[in-house]
């Protein structure tokens, strides 16, 4: 019996995770679901944003469903030393699970083009998959310190790190339109020069059917807004991926529609990309679509149950039309939207 | 008599620089203008993208007007070792001039909202100034190498580097709407923690009239597209500034409309932000508006001649309506557009 760990976290995390769990129980009733702490609430309880009981629980998990972590800008958590802050719990979790490839589908739902900040003719039909390297670059290790008046961070990549995430991108492109754009800053950074070299060599060795091109990160930031349909799969390093995947996420018009999957060698991590939205936490009005779609990605990539995943995707698409939430210009609250998903599932 | 050095560079650089020089001679006939080599053409002539004769000429210059550098993706220049490539000439030039603050105004011209990839109601009235730190961070110095299977770059900032560029942002905000958004990734990077600390301290010490807030780079990448009017002045480090300023530059709808100024302790550097566009180089169809507007910034910031600068801005705005170039949906070529600017100047 597969075991899923849920980590609802902070802010609206518990509300949207509860909705996703309700849906999971419906389409995968045989799965065991166990809840644990992460982020600010974990710090408040255990003095650690990624506490030992949570670490232990992950050992025999098949997949992890995360809510959101972190508080408001002026939250007391932000006054803690960096390693005790909620976000550090998230970074430590990614590392513990070995999730090196963060997958973020960016799809404009037909009929919902009007939600996009882009002109509808640019938004229509956009279907991009961003693959972000999640365990390397300037985020982890290396020399990092503030030393009086000087601060340092180190950006670092190794060939095996580049190859394993590029493999995920090539594999995903094979299921899609067969095109990968690798993003770097090779005109300035040695790290990007290695990245470009290794991605190219891997394609030449093992993925000759894939069309690969390389673009600079500043140019992609422009083109993803002015001509988003040119992209199929985008693969890039951690920091560029952080920026570009959030940027691309605005195209569909609401972060409430954006799920993600982080894959590695062990259990995968699935989470909505929106933040903890402390301003609306506890009000029961958060859009749970992204959390529910993340549960869909969990079934697809984590438990290899594509049928159940497709069921969820169809039910969410119906519910978005029937009961749009406030971020989509509708009036449905979390419960109402979730009920709409449930009834679409039951009648399917 | 003020002395200006022009560095037309590669691709369409010479064409748009020639147009800007024509305009400069009209509004500032007393200025001496001297042309030198940079980028790929400088490598081809001297084996160095920033050759000694150019370095020497800068010594007594009051301002520098740059065209564009670099070739096509598959250009032979890109096969050279990094320090000989055209872009390295540009980086070396910035360093030699000590230009630490790159100013990029992003303004949607009234009546030209339809050019924006954003919905017109979002594009209307956007008026942002991006101040990018240009001599530090991961771009220069520090440990940087490829060592077999591992590559490194070092991101580094010091308090004096942060303060001098923040000062430019606060000063600019005083002439504008009094608001500065400082952009970092302080939830992950020590360098950003120093950045945030030093920007805040400087505001508290010397610019109490300015409203300062801090935002994460991934969040700004979203908000600059979904809600651009929230920003007045944005200040950020080199790499984030590279990405965000290019991103913001798409809002007005054509890179052909975007000038820039790089200021420091000596002569300033003024350049259009578009690339060398090798595909249209030599055809006489490039839009010279950004180069001409950069000449305007040169007069304003470099030679302290605001009246001449205003004259240019007004003439360009008229010419954009009378003779739009191809990138703006019109038919005017470089010459025709430049003539429209000249006649607007003469009749003003
Ligand atoms: C909270 C932060 C550390 C995190 C990151 O930068 O990875 C977030 O922005 C994300 O993208 O999940
Ligand atoms: C060509 C490149 C080195 C340069 C940079 O990254 O600074 C360019 O993108 C720019 O913004 O002027």
TrEMBL record, chains A, B:
<keyword id="KW-0560">Oxidoreductase</keyword>
<dbReference type="InterPro" id="IPR004429">
    <property type="entry name" value="Isopropylmalate_DH"/>
</dbReference>
<keyword id="KW-0464">Manganese</keyword>
<feature type="binding site">
    <location>
        <position position="246"/>
    </location>
    <ligand>
        <name>Mg(2+)</name>
    </ligand>
</feature>
<keyword id="KW-0963">Cytoplasm</keyword>
<feature type="site" description="Important for catalysis">
    <location>
        <position position="185"/>
    </location>
</feature>
<keyword id="KW-0100">Branched-chain amino acid biosynthesis</keyword>
<feature type="binding site">
    <location>
        <position position="242"/>
    </location>
    <ligand>
        <name>Mg(2+)</name>
    </ligand>
</feature>
<feature type="binding site">
    <location>
        <position position="94"/>
    </location>
    <ligand>
        <name>substrate</name>
    </ligand>
</feature>
<feature type="binding site">
    <location>
        <position position="218"/>
    </location>
    <ligand>
        <name>Mg(2+)</name>
    </ligand>
</feature>
<dbReference type="Pfam" id="PF00180">
    <property type="entry name" value="Iso_dh"/>
</dbReference>
<feature type="site" description="Important for catalysis">
    <location>
        <position position="139"/>
    </location>
</feature>
<comment type="subunit">
    <text>Homodimer.</text>
</comment>
<keyword id="KW-0479">Metal-binding</keyword>
<keyword id="KW-0460">Magnesium</keyword>
<protein>
    <recommendedName>
        <fullName>3-isopropylmalate dehydrogenase</fullName>
        <ecNumber>1.1.1.85</ecNumber>
    </recommendedName>
</protein>
<feature type="binding site">
    <location>
        <position position="218"/>
    </location>
    <ligand>
        <name>substrate</name>
    </ligand>
</feature>
<dbReference type="InterPro" id="IPR019818">
    <property type="entry name" value="IsoCit/isopropylmalate_DH_CS"/>
</dbReference>
<feature type="binding site">
    <location>
        <begin position="275"/>
        <end position="287"/>
    </location>
    <ligand>
        <name>NAD(+)</name>
    </ligand>
</feature>
<feature type="binding site">
    <location>
        <position position="104"/>
    </location>
    <ligand>
        <name>substrate</name>
    </ligand>
</feature>
<keyword id="KW-0432">Leucine biosynthesis</keyword>
<feature type="domain" description="Isopropylmalate dehydrogenase-like">
    <location>
        <begin position="3"/>
        <end position="341"/>
    </location>
</feature>
<keyword id="KW-0028">Amino-acid biosynthesis</keyword>
<comment type="pathway">
    <text>Amino-acid biosynthesis; L-leucine biosynthesis; L-leucine from 3-methyl-2-oxobutanoate: step 3/4.</text>
</comment>
<dbReference type="InterPro" id="IPR024084">
    <property type="entry name" value="IsoPropMal-DH-like_dom"/>
</dbReference>
<keyword id="KW-0520">NAD</keyword>
<comment type="function">
    <text>Catalyzes the oxidation of 3-carboxy-2-hydroxy-4-methylpentanoate (3-isopropylmalate) to 3-carboxy-4-methyl-2-oxopentanoate. The product decarboxylates to 4-methyl-2 oxopentanoate.</text>
</comment>
<feature type="binding site">
    <location>
        <position position="132"/>
    </location>
    <ligand>
        <name>substrate</name>
    </ligand>
</feature>
<comment type="similarity">
    <text>Belongs to the isocitrate and isopropylmalate dehydrogenases family. LeuB type 1 subfamily.</text>
</comment>
